[in-house]
Backbone:
């Protein structure tokens, strides 16, 4: 969806620590004639984005897997352009159908604190998703 939204001139960096998943994505993109996706095999602590290259970093069902989130968010900030944005969608701890134990998830307040430590400003909390999820938007300061 992102690749289509930014076509024809925009680029999408698909980042994951699993090269096999990225290989599958690349195959699907080729089938759909999407040539504006660049895959990046990252490490658990670094998304390895090119410096100052990204307008929006989008994470869905990811941040609860990241060990040192504040340091990770600082690495994300390095990849963002000035005033670039970061979106985090993740499971709400204690949500009625969250597939993880509550203590394995990150409360939205903790994400806000850690992103602030990494140089982000909280912008908005959207409420249109089902109660299992939160949707937070941050801007690089």
Residues:
């Amino acid at each position: 969806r992102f690749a289509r939204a930014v076509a024809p001139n925009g680029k999408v960096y698909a980042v994951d620590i699993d090269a096999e998943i990225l290989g599958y994505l690349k195959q699907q993109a080729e089938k759909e004639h999407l040539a504006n996706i660049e895959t990046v095999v990252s490490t658990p602590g670094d998304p390895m984005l090119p410096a100052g290259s990204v307008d929006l970093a989008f994470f869905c069902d990811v941040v609860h897997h990241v060990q040192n989130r504040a340091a990770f968010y600082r690495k994300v900030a390095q990849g963002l352009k000035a005033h670039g944005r970061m979106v985090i969608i993740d499971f709400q701890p204690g949500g009625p159908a969250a597939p993880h134990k509550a203590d394995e998830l990150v409360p939205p307040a903790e994400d806000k604190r850690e992103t602030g430590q990494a140089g982000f400003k909280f912008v908005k909390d959207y409420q249109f998703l089902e109660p299992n999820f939160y949707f937070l938007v941050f801007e690089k300061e």
